[in-house]
Design brief:
Elements: E1 6-8, E2 32-38, E3 48-50, E4 63-69, E5 89-101, E6 117-129
Parallel strand pairs: 4-6
Antiparallel strand pairs: 1-6, 2-3, 2-5, 3-4, 5-6
Amino acid sequence: MEKAHNNETSKPKNISNSTNTLTGKKENLEIETLILSYNAISCSCAQWSDSRFDKKENPDKKDYYWLEPANEKLINADHVFNGENLPVQIKVTGQIVSENGFPKGKNLSKISEDQAGKVFQYTKIEILKS
């Protein structure tokens, strides 16, 4: 089942806290649009992946991301997967907030420090497949 859903904010907001740091200089932050797939794997690690690399040279190469909505009005990407509906694919626009960390507000009680990963803060989300 495919459905498109747009949810965006009018102005991107940058956040930073003790576990999140912006990559690059504030005035030079690169806004990116990524198409990500949900990987239903049995770990408490980052489960959204981007496989935009050349499949011939790196067929298994994926970048994994923790996703963080820029504000509470946006759909939480981690709630799109209901446990049954695979594949799940979304398009998000935003920026990498942390090369190695966790999303703001993430319950870290069951997550170990070695599961830190790229955090992508999105200001726009579109559900492509669910």
